[in-house]
Design a protein that fits this description.
15% strand; 3-stranded mixed β-sheet; 459 residues; 15 helices; globular; alpha+beta
Length: 459
């Protein structure tokens, strides 16, 4: 156990300095830490000029050895690849490494050939193949028919990357045939043309937009299985809107979502199918508004709102102030960028890139502040309550999520509550405004009953 003072180490123990760090950047971090370094060969005091010089020399030698070893390994792999030999690393799907060579894995080869046949001969979409592989072995069960090498459920991007890997032709990265191919050249060319055609939509993994919404990114979970809700876009009467859902195609079959037989309409006929139970879904903006209102109510009621640490380091306060100034500058930069887009001075693509970049930097600022102050109060990071209320609509999703994460461990969404109607028809002679108000109140009631917030302790 290393002794600590506050949040800083006072002593770092290692076998040797070059086992502790590999470059001068790590050394500078160690110097800023202000800790003593104790190794088998003795102690290095990095607070002195002599100790810093010794540390710099040792870090330089460690970096030299590391880079030389890396270059040697790369040359070795390149030579093996050009000679038609397996060059090391994780074997491609369909093969396993044995005595330095690749040999087929029958179960994986069977799936590759099955997928190729269903795509090229049966003209099945990849989604149908993935859905079939992920379906239970036994109707109503939770064990899928097939799993990936890592015992996970299949996704379209996984299968697509396997079928487009030239290792299926027995080729090394240098293009030399070195092991038994799984599919022939003609089949591979047809698959490549099918999966990379300009008219074909590339399906990305669900949830890739999780960081673009405040309630995504793992903050919101399913009340049944505890898995993160995945962000997606849903279409409704009022157009498209972001939503969060527990998706089978992402998390796979689960004993928490047992399947039952149901009658559904298909092609004008009633057919019996197996469907999961307990999969939750909720409109993102509706959930965000509710969670934010609860967060504000909690802040108003807590006596710790104005609390600050009794002892503050002026240097730390200065760094926090600089980070907050940078965050404010980023918000102003985003406003200017959006103005440029409205005036047609920049494209939508550049606006999106700017938003993503600013969002990522804002999140990093939040993490940097958290490291500086440990568990800061909300006021120290985001300002006074009235400032939060006025600034919230202009915050980026990253800012909103960082704010909520300082108060919340996670948000649990349960199934639609009993007694609250799902459909809400408009009554005869009811005005559109009255109907909208009743519908909004009904949705708010449902959200209040099905959402459970697990709060952090407010500092």
């Amino acid at each position: 156990m290393l002794p600590r003072i506050g949040n800083d180490f006072t002593v770092v123990i290692a076998v040797d300095l070059d086992r502790l760090l590999r470059n001068t950047r790590d050394l500078n971090t160690l110097i800023d830490l202000g800790a003593r370094v104790v190794t088998v060969d003795g102690e290095i005091d990095l607070s002195t000029a002599d100790g810093e010089f010794r540390g710099t020399m040792l870090a330089g030698i460690a970096r030299f050895e590391s880079r030389r070893s890396s270059e040697r390994q790369k040359r070795s792999k390149q030579h093996a690849s050009e000679a038609g030999k397996w060059h090391g690393g994780i074997p491609p799907y369909g093969y396993t490494a044995k005595d330095g060579a690749l040999v087929e894995v029958k179960s994986e080869v069977k799936l590759i050939k099955e997928a190729a046949k269903r795509l090229l001969e049966n003209y099945e979409p990849m989604y149908a193949i993935i859905t079939d592989w992920n379906s239970p072995k036994v109707p109503g069960g939770s064990e899928p028919k097939h799993q990936t090498r890592g015992n996970h459920h299949w996704r379209q991007p996984n299968l697509r990357s396997i079928l487009l890997n030239r290792a299926m032709l027995g080729e090394t990265k240098a293009g030399v045939v070195g092991w038994k191919p799984i599919i022939d050249q003609a089949t591979f060319d047809r698959l490549h043309a099918l999966l990379t055609g300009p008219s074909r939509k590339v399906v990305h993994s669900p949830g890739v937009k999780g960081g673009k919404y405040s309630m995504g990114g793992g903050l919101t979970v399913c009340g049944k299985c505890g898995k993160p809700l995945i962000t997606s876009t849903k279409s409704g009467m009022n157009g498209k809107h972001p939503a969060l859902a527990c998706l089978r195609r992402v998390h796979g079959p689960s004993e928490h979502h047992p399947q039952v037989q149901r009658m559904v309409a298909r092609n004008g006929e009633k057919v019996e199918v197996w469907q999961d139970t307990g999969r939750v879904a909720i409109a993102h903006d509706l959930l965000e508004a509710y969670v934010f209102s609860q967060a504000i109510a909690r802040l108003k009621s807590t006596e710790h709102w104005h609390s600050r640490k009794s002892e503050k380091d002026p240097a730390v306060d200065g760094k926090i102030a600089a980070l907050n100034e940078r965050r404010t500058a980023l918000a102003e930069k985003l406003d200017r960028t959006e103005d440029f887009a409205m005036d047609g001075l920049i494209s939508k693509a550049k606006l999106k890139a700017a938003r993503d970049s600013i969002d990522a930097e804002v999140e990093q600022i939040g993490r940097d502040i958290a490291k500086l102050v440990g568990k800061p109060s909300i006021g120290e990071v985001f300002g006074k309550l009235d400032h939060i209320l006025t600034s919230w609509p202009r915050w980026t999703p990253g800012q909103r999520r960082e704010f909520l994460k300082m108060l919340i461990d996670r948000v649990v969404v349960n199934e639609w509550p009993d007694g609250v109607p799902r459909t809400f028809p408009q009554a005869r002679n009811e005005s559109a405004d009255v109907y909208a108000a009743r519908k909004k109140a009904n949705l708010a009631k449902a959200v209040e009953q099905r959402v459970r917030i697990q709060w952090r302790e407010v500092n």
